[in-house]
Design a protein that fits this description.
single chain, alpha/beta, Purple Acid Phosphatase, chain A, domain 2, 9-stranded mixed sheet, 7-stranded mixed sheet, globular
Length: 225
């Protein structure tokens, strides 16, 4: 079933879809790729006394479930920072994760260890998710958390939470998340909505695709601040 608002691309001679749900779909491998969900960030803020709604993790996981069902995905690759911090069993995010995993028991989940994951640790063993160091090769792609070049293939990475400021008028701009594509590396937007963005530094050979709630849009340089 097609997903409205997607953009098809050829990356390293593979056809992929950039999805407005902040995910990349690699159809040939029935693989959904996301970066930086930062699960449990809302729980971390609440423990610090910041009144954040408890529905954040549930909403992100529901969006993920919808994609998995629509695309009939067999594998999920998370490009690092699966967790924001070490979870507690009673956290809303951890409880939502267990419900989500029970709904997708046959889904193969591969987590590339990010900087937050080093401190948070891997998901509980009974959840059946594999965590590996960055640099996992699945030709023609190399799965990493930190962006960079790799002679073995085109890098898919996260970490930076890329965004662009789109000029809406002479004095008005709006920062939106984006897919940032360079010849050697593709940086995905942060999947978690309770995250910020950093300015994508686009080279002359690079391109950006802005992400809204319902569409991915290629951006000409003329509209970038």
């Amino acid at each position: 079933m097609p997903i409205p608002g997607t953009i098809p691309l050829e990356l390293a001679d593979e056809r992929v879809l950039l999805c407005p749900q902040r995910a990349l779909w690699w159809g040939a491998r029935r693989t959904l790729v996301i970066a930086d969900p930062h699960l449990g960030k809302d729980d971390t803020f609440r423990r610090s006394g910041v009144p954040v709604p408890a529905s954040v993790a549930r909403a992100d996981l529901a969006r993920l479930s919808s994609l998995i069902g629509t695309l009939a995905a067999r594998r999920l690759v998370v490009l690092g920072d699966f967790y924001h911090a070490r979870p507690a069993a009673e956290d809303h995010g951890e409880r939502a994760l267990r419900v989500w995993r029970a709904a997708h028991p046959s889904l193969d989940v591969l987590i590339i260890r990010g900087n937050h994951d080093v401190h948070a640790g891997p998901p509980a063993a009974e959840l059946g998710m594999q965590t590996v160091d960055e640099g996992e090769l699945d030709p023609p792609f190399v799965f990493r958390h930190h962006p960079g070049a790799d002679e073995r293939g085109l890098v898919l990475a996260g970490h930076l939470h890329p965004g662009v400021t789109v000029l809406l008028g002479r004095r008005e701009g709006r920062r939106v998340p984006c897919f940032h594509i360079e010849p050697a590396c593709v940086v995905l937007p942060a999947f978690g909505r309770f995250t910020g963005t950093s300015r994508a530094e686009v080279s002359p050979a690079g391109s950006v695709y802005a992400v809204s709630d319902d569409a991915v849009t290629p951006l000409p340089r003329a509209v970038l601040a």
